[in-house]
Structures are given as C-alpha cells and as structure tokens.
Specification:
Layout: H1 42-53, E1 61-64, H2 71-84, E2 90-95, E3 105-110, H3 113-136, H4 139-168, E4 172-177, E5 180-185, H5 195-199, H6 203-219, H7 221-260, H8 265-280, H9 282-286, E6 312-316, E7 326-329, H10 334-338, E8 340-341, E9 344-346, E10 349-351, E11 357-358, H11 361-364, E12 369-373, H12 374-377, H13 383-393, E13 395-396, H14 401-405, E14 418-419, E15 423-428, H15 430-439, H16 441-446, E16 449-452, E17 456-458, H17 461-478, H18 485-499, E18 504-506, H19 509-522, H20 532-546, H21 548-558, E19 569-571, E20 573-582, E21 585-599, E22 603-606, H22 607-610, H23 616-633, E23 641-647, H24 660-672, E24 675-677, E25 680-682, E26 685-686, E27 692-693, H25 698-712, E28 719-723, H26 734-741, E29 746-750, H27 753-761, H28 765-791
Helix pairs in contact: 1-2, 3-7, 4-7, 7-8, 18-20, 19-20, 23-24, 24-28
C-alpha cells in the first residue's frame, strides 16, 4: 500500500515569513525619526560601555564579531562620546640631557603649554646667540678684562725683575718672548750678548755658557713655578670673568621663563642644567669655536650644530584637541606604535639626536583611546609584544629593535619612557579572541572586557521599527531617496534571508546598506520614494553580478556535462545537496551520490576519504552512520557486506556532515536493492540513533536543486527533504514559494531516518526493514558459502 507522504509536506506559508508592516504608522521612512546608534547589539553595547568606564588596569577591550556587523563604526561612535567628557590632556616634549646625553629627558605639560614652552626656549636661545657676543665686545667687558690682564702683567713683570736680579749675578738675563722666557747671556760689561756675538763664541766658551745656563735653570725653578702660577691665575680670572658675565646675561634672559614655568619642576631643573651648560661653553657663544679643518670631521662641521642641544622637541601637542585623543592606527607596526628615532646619513655615518625622536600611536593616544584591528596588528612582527610591554608597564619606551633582538647595532639613544594612561580597543573576530585567551596569559590579564557583536537579532516589532528608522538615517545622511513602507518590508525580508531565519534579522549592516544604495541607484528618477520593486531589482542585480560560477554549473547540468537524474527511481543513487561560495555569495547545487555493495567485511568505504578528498567533519559523518547501521543491524551477527560510497564528479574535495543522512539512504538502497526517487533531493545530518539533525545553508540548497529542476523541466513530483528543525530557517525566493503553491515543487521536513526512507521509496517502514534484512541475509549467505569453499 503506497505511503502517504503529504503529512511531511510543507505549506507555502512555511517557506517564507513576510513581516506585516500595517502595525506601523508611516508611509515612508521620511515620516520616521532617524535612529542614532545600533540595533540588536545590547549585550555588546553594554560590555563596551562598561569597559570604557572602567579605569582599573587591565580593562582594555576586545571587540569581537565578523566584519560588517557595525562593530568598528559603533565602537568609534561610543569612544567618541566618552572622549568628549575627558579634558585632562597632556603635551610632551623631549629635551637634551646635559648629564647623560644618550638619555633624552621627557617633560609633560598641560595641553597647549608645550608649544609655548618650545617657542619661549627658541626665542631665548636665539636671542642669547646674538646678545652674548655683543656683551663680550662691550666696553665694560673690555675694561674689566684689561684691568685683570694689566694686573697680572705687572705682577709678572715684577717677578721677572726679581728673577733678573738673581740671574745677573750669574751672568744671565731673562727676557719675555713669544715662546715664554728667554735666557740671554751677559757680557762682562753687563750688556746683553747679541746673536752675532753668541754665534761667534768658541766651542769652549759655548760649552761653558751652556753649563752655566743649565745650572741657572735648575736654580730658578721656584721663579718659573711662580710665573706659571701667575699665568694660570690670569686664565682662571679671565674664565671667571667670562662665566660671571655669561651667567648674568643668561640669567637675565631666562628669568621670565623660570617664573612662567615655576610650577613645573622638571622644566626648572632642565633650565638650570641648560644655563650651567651654556656657561661651561660660553666660548662657543663668544664665537671663538672654529669649525674643524678636518674634512672628515662630523662633530664640528657646522658651528651652529652645537646649539641644537638647547632646542625643544615638541613631541606631543594637544593644544587644538577637544576631549581625549582617539587614534585609529591602520598600520600598527612596532615603530608606529611605540615611536622611533630617525637617523640621518652624515658622510657615511648614521646619526640621530633627541630632536629626531618621533611619537608612535601609543604616545598620540595617551590620555585617550587607541583602536587597532587585530588582523593588522598581528601582520607586523614584534608589534604585539611592543603593545603588551607598554600595557604591562604603563610606560611607552622607545627602543630600536636592533637593541632588543640583537640585530646590527647602530649607536642610538635611550629616551626617557613616558607614563602611559590610555585604553586600547582591539577589533577582531571571536576565533582570534579565543586563541589569544587560551594561549596568551598576558592577553587574559590585559584585555578583561570582550564586547561580542552578534550577526543576528530577534525579529521583534521593536527591532523592525528601529530597523526602519535606521534606513531613514541612511537616507538622511547619504542623501538617498526615502523608502516606501513596502520597500522597508522587502529590506526586512532580505535581512531575514541573510540571517537564515524567520525569527531573526541580520546584523550584517554592510550588506544591508549596500542594498539601500543600490536600490536608490536603480530607482526611477520620477519616483518620489524607493519602492519594493527597486529593492528586489537591487537584490537580483547583486546576485547577477556574483553568480557567474553558479550559472556555469547550471549550464553543465543542462547540457549533460554534470550528470544528474531528476526523474524516475534508481537503486544505489541519490541526489544530495551542497553549498558553494564565491566571496559573499553562496549558492546550492545538487550532488549525485552513489553506493555499490558487495560481499565482504570492510564495512563502509568512503571513496573521498581514501583519496584524501574528504574533510574531518565529513569523515565523522560517515563514521556516525556506520554506528547507526551497526547498532541497528549487527547486534547479533557481523555484517558481511561492504559498501563503497562516493560523490560522483567531485574533484575538489568535500567536508561537512550535512549529507550523512543522504549517504545512509543510498547505502541502505544499495544493500536492500530498493529504488530511490531521483526527483527528491536530500539534506540533513544524522545521529547514531537515527535522528535527523539541522544543517546550514538550507535555503541555498533548496534553491540550487529547484533551479536545476527548472532547467530540465518541473514535473510536479520534484522536491527536497530537509530536517524539521530547519523549517524556521526557510526564507526562500519567491519563485520557489510560487512553485510550491502551484504544486509544481515540494519540500518535506522530517525528524528521523525512517520518515526519510518512506518518502524516498514510497514503502512503509516495515516493508523497508524487511528488504534491508533480506539484503543483509543475502550477503551473509554469500560470505558463509565462500568460507565453506575455503575450508574445503
């Protein structure tokens, strides 16, 4: 007696759910108040808001979700709101360290002060560069200098006279020359011996004078020491004069700055060190330092280069910023995060200075928020480690990688680290979050907040209304035509299709916004509003742009290149369903699965697995159906049948367990020699207990088989078997719904294997079981006969 399969057949109302917009009092989105914010992400929004408010260490935020859910734009909008409430920004400068030149000092200021400090310092230094030489050429300085020089010149002259009184008795006279004191012999009459007379001396007389001169030099050592002491004191007095003169003029010009920045202790300490250094190098201001004559010298090539040490490197300037800084670093290399020192090539040597220190994103975002994409972060070596080190120490340290990791070493600086107070927000997917949380202990301590953006939301009246308002927002902000109520309904329908659910709306805002833009572009110029037809045209156009591969496959089904039977019944052959994708576009296609059975005890041979074209999920599915067959048919005896299954004309590989029920049906058909209806395709996962489990891509799979049937001609018998749990996921295209309504196509939902077998074979459960046992017994008898022959 034929089995009535209509009880599993779905009604047209089950295939798609159109939202009734009559409850909403608007004719178009022009009547709606635009929506600010995001829809259906309450959990993520609450987590993000909480994380932004937390000030304790370690409460940085990981925003998880797939691209297109609005995670980035919403995060930025939330951060912007919080940033507006913060106004305690700081500026930073780097200055020369006079005590440790290789370690430049960092000084912080209230926002807006640093650039004024830089300008004040440059003004004073430039003024001193001009004024100090003038002071040292002034009449007052010259008089004082001459006074000191004349004083010590008189003292020196008196000492020389005293020395000559001593030397005269020994036949010599001391005279001041360019090279110091000259010893000149005296003649018998007491007059000085001329050079000519000295040169005409006999050897004996010359030797005698030489010996007397050496003896004299030994005796006048005390005088010579006194003479050198006078010269040293003269130099010291001149230096002291220069220092006091320099100190006086330097202090005069710095008095206003010292008073202006008296509340900043580090500024005062720096100015004191700077003033002391200026005094120490006052001769450079006097213009007495000459450039080196050595063409290979770097140090003194430019006389003014020395004065760079008195400059100020304006490192971070927040003078024009309102609220806390927000930095979205799109190229987070190690140096772009932590800062760097730029190097200059000077005659073959790489040089740098405190003026060449450049800030990184961590410096720019200090006091505010740093937003990073995880994918970008991990695409740059050492960037993650540099970020973690800064977060753990609450300091940003500028170091070259060669110092940390032993690369080629270049002489470099070690700038003073800057205290860091900011919140880092990483944006990535949930998988990356899970990996980091599982394997990186630092990550767990540093990123305690996870804001998880969902890909879908409930299709509630509240969310649908917000959804309509969000369309109004896009229309206002992007200058689009407003959408009619019917057009909004069509977009809501499309959103549910993206979510693969009657009860959900998709949160993939990027894809939804694209449809809005495209529907507006396709709208008739004479139309006031975007219509439902415009939205459908946009959906169709998008599909057309992306479905070339789908159409190529359908052509191959149509011309017989890809073999498929959608009529009649066959033993050991069934039509399964698979989903393929090209970018964001996915489509379904039928796949012919065949099974061949023969005597033996190898069980089920998965051809795809044997040739390594099968994924782990598919292998698991085959093992599960093996468990089902074993438990149901081999409790009392060992199965004596081997069945080989394969996806025909599959050369690329296969994965997933959504075809496991389909494979079970074709195996049982082959064993029991029961014909299967080729015009009904099947999808569904199976448990070891024979339960049919839900699968993904149900809409694409049904539509894929429907399209092939349309190409070859609808007969009124064709259809698809799906798991009962997937009925709620059905949002089929209108062509399929209309065909079902006309009785030209059918969709069946089942919950167990037995129901599927009855639909596919047209036999009752008892009849099917009887044939399966007969088939198994046949192979058992064949195996026993073989064993008997082997024994003989």
């Amino acid at each position: 007696m034929p089995v009535d399969i209509s009880k599993w057949r779905l009604e047209p109302r089950d295939l798609k759910l159109k939202y009734n917009m009559d409850d909403f009092d608007f004719k178009s989105t022009q009547d709606l108040k635009p929506l600010k914010g995001i829809i259906g992400q309450e959990r993520a929004a609450e987590a993000l808001n909480f994380g932004l408010k937390m000030k304790a260490k370690g409460y940085n935020i990981f925003v998880a979700g797939i691209s297109g859910t609005g995670r980035s734009s919403y995060t930025y909008s939330m951060v912007s709101k919080v940033a507006q409430t913060k106004k305690n920004n700081k500026d930073y400068v780097y200055v020369y360290n006079f005590k440790n030149p290789d370690e430049p000092k960092a000084i912080s200021f209230q926002a807006g002060e640093a650039k004024h400090f830089q300008k004040d310092m440059d003004t004073v230094v430039d003024k001193l560069y001009e004024e100090i030489p003038k002071v040292f050429t002034s009449r007052e300085y010259e008089l004082r200098n001459n006074e000191i020089a004349q004083k010590y010149e008189r003292m020196g002259q008196n000492l020389i006279e005293e020395l000559n009184e001593f030397a005269k008795d020994r036949g010599f006279f001391f005279q001041q020359g360019n090279q110091g004191l000259l010893t000149i012999p005296l003649k018998e009459d007491g007059s000085l011996m001329s050079d000519e007379e000295y040169n005409n001396l006999s050897e004996d007389e010359f030797a005698r004078l030489r010996d007397k001169s050496q003896d004299l030099n030994k005796e006048v050592t005390e005088y010579m020491n006194r003479m050198r002491n006078l010269e040293q004191k003269l130099r010291e007095k001149i230096i002291e004069l220069d220092r006091k003169t320099g100190e006086r003029v330097i202090s005069f010009f710095f008095d206003d700055i010292v008073e202006k920045y008296s509340a900043n202790e580090k500024v005062i300490l720096h100015i004191n060190d700077l003033k002391e250094d200026m005094v120490e190098h006052i001769n450079k201001f006097k213009g007495q330092q000459k450039a080196s004559a050595n063409p290979f010298s770097i140090q003194k090539e430019d006389p003014k280069k020395f004065f760079e040490r008195y400059k100020v490197n304006l490192f971070i300037d927040n003078s024009d910023r309102i609220g806390a800084p927000i930095v979205n670093e799109t190229n987070p290399t190690y140096y772009n995060l932590t800062g760097m020192m730029e190097y200059k090539n000077e005659m073959g040597f790489l040089t740098t200075s405190f003026m060449d220190i450049k800030p990184g994103a961590l410096h720019k975002a200090n006091g505010g928020f740093l937003i990073l994409n995880v994918k970008d972060l991990f695409s740059h070596q050492f960037a993650w480690e540099g970020l973690k080190r800064s977060l753990k120490t609450n300091k940003v340290t500028i170091e070259t990688l060669n110092k940390q990791y032993g690369y080629i070493v270049t002489a470099t600086l070690k700038p003073e680290p800057i205290d860091m107070d900011l919140k880092v927000i990483l944006i990535g997917d949930y998988y990356t979050y899970s990996v980091l949380f599982s394997y990186d202990e630092d990550f767990r301590k540093l990123f305690r907040i996870m804001a998880d953006f969902d890909v879908e939301m409930q299709r509630s009246s509240e969310n649908v209304y917000k959804f309509a308002r969000s369309i109004a927002t896009q229309c206002e902000e992007k200058g689009l035509k407003h959408f009619s109520k019917e057009a909004v309904e069509k977009v809501v329908e499309y959103s549910s299709r993206l979510a693969d659910s009657k009860d959900k709306l998709s949160s993939r805002y990027n894809q939804l916004v694209e449809i809005l833009y495209e529907a507006d572009a396709l709208s008739d110029e004479t139309s006031v509003f975007v219509t439902a037809q415009d939205v459908q045209r946009a959906i169709n156009a998008k599909r057309y742009r992306n479905n070339k591969y789908e159409e190529k496959l359908n052509e191959m089904y149509e011309d017989g290149t890809l073999l498929i039977d959608i009529d009649g019944e066959k033993i050991g052959q069934i039509n399964g369903l698979a989903v393929m994708g090209t970018g964001e576009y996915s489509f379904g296609k039928p796949a012919r699965i065949t099974a061949s059975s023969y005597k033996g005890k190898a069980g089920i041979i998965n051809v795809e697995r044997e040739v390594r074209r099968s994924g782990s999920s598919h292998d698991k599915g085959v093992l599960i159906l093996s468990g089902y067959i074993g438990e149901k048919y081999a409790k009392e005896t060992t199965l004596s049948v081997t069945t080989s299954i394969t996806f025909e004309q599959n050369y690329s590989g296969i994965d997933g367990d959504s075809a496991s029920s389909t494979e079970l049906y074709v195996i049982l058909s082959s064993i029991a020699q029961i014909p299967i209806k080729q015009y009904i395709a099947v999808t569904g996962s199976i448990s070891q207990k024979g339960e049919i489990q839900p699968i993904g891509g149900v809409n694409e799979k049904i539509e894929g088989f429907f399209d092939v049937c349309m190409l070859k001609g609808l007969t009124g018998n064709q259809g698809v078997i799906i798991p009962k749990q997937n009925v709620k996921n059905l949002m089929l295209k209108d062509e399929v719904v209309e065909a079902v309504q006309k009785g030209e196509f059918h969709i069946y939902s089942i919950s167990n294997v037995e129901e599927g077998l009855e639909i596919l074979t047209g036999l009752s459960h008892d009849e099917i079981e009887e044939k399966i046992h007969e088939g198994l017994k046949y192979y058992e008898e064949k195996e026993e006969a073989k064993d008997s022959e082997d024994e003989e």
